[in-house]
Amino acid sequence: MNTDRWCVEVQTESSVQGVYEMTIENRGSQRRRRLTALITLMVVAMLAVACGGSAIEPTATTVAGGGDAGGAGSTPAASTESGDGEYFFTFANATASGPLFVGLQEGLMKTAEEAGIRIKLYNNDFDGETALRNAQLMVQDKPDLIIMYNAVEGVSASIGKLFNDAGIPCIAVNVPIPGCPWFNLSNKEIGYETGKVVAEEAKARGWTGENTTVILVQNASAGEEVNHSVMYFYQAVAESMEGMDLINAEEITRDKTTMGNNLVQVDGQSALEPSYLAVKNVLPTIPQDRKILVMTPNDDSAMGAWRAIEEANRADDALIAGLGGGEEGLKQLRENPNWVAEGDIFFPFWGQYLLAMAIEMLNGDTPPERTAAPQVVLTKETVDQYYPDGATVPSILPPLGPENEYLKDSQLLKSLDNIEGIND
């Protein structure tokens, strides 16, 4: 046997701790658990000998030079960037797959490398149990600060208790976590503004509430805050289009599948394939002569929804808006006549704000209730303002506002010099 190859394959495909945890979750007998634990220790010893080391860190892989072991299509539990930085942070991404989330992770790691910050990455895989388990591991890492992007609202309280009991400062991304300062866009504002843009385009095409159905592709497990983007989208559309059933955003709950004559809601889980399947399954229930408006919580979900609409040959009578401002969303906005708005939250650049926020917290600053992510609703007429000449990387980021203005003194952001007015 080639022991070097065997060592690499075992460490890549399965972690010792993962084997042990899977057995515990199977609820086997006490004797079986003790036997599994004994086998686990034996495997550790075998791996240590075969790999030429004395110990193996479960679920972790060291990546030299600031590399990224969590790219698209991979689901490592954790990876560590080597280096001796002034700060050591851990970051758990909502998922390590999907272009939006990969872009966020790559941007954070790039900024960390430039700033000399050590980062240990975790993948929550859009799963509450995984996020909770990762939170436990992150506490064991004893970092200076934890950045947690947990997409399942139901485990947020438990995660917050772990961090707070350990006395480790933390930042919650997108979905709030008790005891952790919160970084997020305003889903309410971006959803409402997007709804107004889409409604104006629908009216310009002669569509009314009498012949239009709005499909909201929500994410039920993510909580109300994330779903405000679709809820307030509907409210804005209903207020703008004659004949539309007026339903306030607060009345649209995550368990509703239909409301009134104009609203249909499906759960796309903020991911491409689930969104594709959800919209594909609901389209046959909407009469062929109806016009369709679609809103989702992010571009991955929007791409899945739009694929279902195209396959059903209903694209000519549908309008959609994206949310994320990623490369694919910008491409659709420029090239697809029915992709009429793109809520740009400059997602690949969230990492620089998060790291700046973390450093300012460790330096004694107290963030506001929500540190605002940059955001703007792009249209076909305004996309070149931030992305001139077909660019997919913005030429400049929006200026800091009231909910993130405390970052104006961040030396990290000043050194990056890509935010309007940051060095004025």
UniProtKB/TrEMBL annotation:
Record keyword Protease present: no
Transmembrane stretches, start-end: 35-56
GO molecular function terms attached to this record: carbohydrate binding
Main location: other
Keyword terms, alphabetized: Membrane, Signal, Transmembrane, Transmembrane helix
Location within or outside the cell: Cell envelope
Stored InterPro entries: Peripla_BP_I (IPR028082), SBP_2_dom (IPR025997)
Residue ranges of domain Periplasmic binding protein in the record: 90-362
Any one GO cellular component localisation term in the record: cell envelope
Keyword Membrane: yes
Family from the record: Belongs to the bacterial solute-binding protein 2 family.
Name used for this protein in its record: Periplasmic binding protein/LacI transcriptional regulator
Organism: Sphaerobacter thermophilus (strain ATCC 49802 / DSM 20745 / KCCM 41009 / NCIMB 13125 / S 6022)
